[in-house]
Amino acid sequence: MEKKQTEARSTSTRSRDRGRATRRRLIEATAQLCKERPGTEMSVAEIANAADVFPNQVTYHFGSKDSLLVHAAFLGLLHDARRIERIGRQAPDAATFRRNIARAVLAMPSLPSVARALAAGISKPELAPVVDQHLQVLFQQSERFVSQLIKRRGWRARRPLDVEARTFWSTALGAVLLARAGAHGTVADLDLAGALTIHDDPESS
After folding, report:
1. Are 23 and 65 in contact (CB under 8 A)?
2. What is the predicted pLDDT for the residue at 56?
3. What pTM did the predictor assign?
4. How far does Cα 66 stand from its chain's mean position?
5. What was the pLDDT predicted at 41?
6. What's CA 187's distance to the chain center, in Å?
7. Which of 37, 93, 116, 147 is deepest in the core (most CB within 10 A)?
8. 99-108 pLDDT tens trace
C-alpha cells in the first residue's frame, strides 16, 4: 500500500513538472514570436508549433490565447526591464540615470505587446487579475532595483520608492496606450524622465 502511494506521488510530481515545463515553453515561444513579429496577429496553431506542443495545450494551460499573450508580453517586459537596470547602473550621476532610463524604456521592443495586454485587461475582465499580477511583479522588481541603487550611490528620491516605481511605469505604459489609440504626438513630446524624482543633490532633498 505504501509503495503504491509513493509511486502515485512520484507520478503526480512528474506530471506537474511536465505541466510547468510546457507552460513555460509556451510563454517563452510566444514572447519570442511577439518580439520577431510585433503587431502581427498569431494563431494558436502557430504558437503551438513554435513551442512544439499540441494546440489544445494552449487552452489547457492558459484558458485562452489572449491569456497566454498577456503572460508572454509581460515576460518580454521583465526581460527588457532587466536590461534597463544594467543601463541604469552605468549612469555616472542621477540626471544621466533619469535621462538614460527614460530613453531606453520608450525604446523597449516589448512595449507594443504590453500595450495590447493592457487593452485586453480592459476589454476582458477575466484577464484583469492576470495583468495586475504581472504589473505588481514589475513594480516590485523596479522598486527593489532603485532601492539598491540609491543606497549604493547615496542618491535620494523625493517620494516613497513604491510610488516612484508605479508613477514611472504608469506614465510610460500610459503613453504607449495613448499612442496606440491614435493620440497626436511622438515620444519626443513626453518628459518621461520628469516622472522620476531620483537625485544626487543634497540641497534638493
Report:
1. no
2. 92
3. 0.80
4. 16
5. 81
6. 20
7. 116
8. 999 999 988 8
